[in-house]
Amino acid sequence: MKRLFAVFLLLFGLTGCAGRQPSYTTDFFAMDTFMSVSVYGSDEDSAQQAAVACEQEVNALEPALSRTREDSDLHRLNHANGAVCEVSEDTYAAIEAAVQYAALTGGAFDPTMASLTDLWGINTENAHVPTQAEIDEALSHVGYENIKLLGNNQVQLLDGAQLDLGGIGKGFATDAVFALLTQQTEDAATGALVQLGGNIGAFGQNPARNGGNWVVGVADPDNNAEFVATAEVRDASVVTSGDYERYFEQDGKRYHHIFDPETGYPADTGLRSVTVIDENSTRADALTTALFVMGLDDGLAFCAENNIAAVFITADKQIYTTDAVASVCTYTFLGAEKGYTDAQ
Ligand code: ADP
Ligand code: MG
Q1: Ligand 1 pocket check: which of 135, 164, 291 to mutate, most ligand atoms within 8 Å of Cβ?
Q2: Which residue's C-alpha comes closest to atom 9 of ligand 1?
Q3: Residuewise pLDDT in 10s, the chain (344 residues)
């Protein structure tokens, strides 16, 4: 609850009061995180209808992306012992996207991390540092090349690979919500702010700023109720992955939930968070995870090569932005008084 409150302060503090524009906000819990959708429209009823439709869309997608629900496609696929399985269109599309970003990032993003995620048990009562032998065994099942997409929603997992779409699911859901909002009439949804955990989608016009852009905060990893920069965006998604959302500590060391597919350990590259700003939230979600694994130098080089708008925050409080940031948003560095340095 504390976390939900913190994120609200951040968003509403920045976006301000929407004046007299009718709006409706729905807060809900899905995909293991707090979510909120605020829709602005010409009247409150249509705004409410649009917001509720967005919530329903996310809830409907949950079984398509979850691997823990026993009735889910991924659960069935992960327990099929290598047999070909038919999955839903949404599940197939999400796996296809995941494989595409795994290839793009040279496997830094890898959707076959389920054996490792299970082993470490981050965010469960069973969170612990596994033995090297356990890690080696889990790693032997990791490798996105073991996902066979056979067309017609048929998928096969080879070599004991098990899918975990946790690194892409909220982005996929944000894109689905955007698609839904786009279908609404102009009156029903002139603008919307969609917050699915660390994925923020800013859709259409912001009535609080006379139809201008939305201001989204980049969280301070030391205190995520505060921000160290803002990005002014429209029809774009701002996605952050960090070491401060889901982790446990053992012997004074922090073990977080973004794993390096090469070592089987939480990525330890001196980064606290990576934020990606992109019109495609699925892509942004996969890339924040991948860039966190790559680390600062490789991450910056990857972004330069692929024209990715990203903000990297290092453990020594340096904030790096890539060249593409200026082309997708108005970025303002605000971290000086919190001890951060604008490294550009
Ligand atoms: P969040 O879920 O907090 O938004 P991310 O988008 O970075 O954060 O996703 C982290 C989740 O993705 C983990 O909880 C795990 O399920 C999965 N995961 C961890 N490491 C990787 C990786 N290298 N590639 C793909 N998925 C990963
Ligand atoms: Mg991600």
Answers
A1: 164
A2: 167
A3: 334 434 443 454 344 444 568 899 999 999 989 999 999 988 889 899 999 999 999 999 999 999 988 989 999 999 999 999 999 999 999 999 999 999 999 999 999 999 999 999 988 888 999 999 999 999 999 999 999 999 999 999 999 999 999 999 999 999 999 999 998 876 777 899 999 998 999 999 998 888 889 999 999 999 989 999 999 999 999 999 999 888 888 888 889 999 999 999 999 999 999 999 999 999 999 999 999 999 999 999 999 999 999 999 999 999 999 999 999 999 999 999 999 999 97
Structure tokens at 305: 């090569």
Residue 20: which residues within 8 A CB-CB, separation 6 or more?
A: none
pTM of the predicted model as reported, rounded to 2 decimal places: 0.94
Q: How far from 213 is each of 185, 191, 207, 236, 252, CA to CA, in Å? A: 20, 10, 9, 10, 42
Q: Give rounded-to-5 percent helix, strand, coil for the chain.
A: 35, 30, 35
CA 129 to chain centre: 25
255 strand-pairing partners: 248
Buried b (16+ CB within 10 A) or exposed e, 153-183: bebbbeebbbbbbbbbbbbbbbbbbbebbee
156 C-alpha to ligand 1 centroid (Å): 22
Which residue from 163, 269, 289, 312 has its CB within 8 A of the most atoms of ligand 1, so it is best to mutate?
289
Which residue has the least CA distance to atom 5 on ligand 1?
A: 167
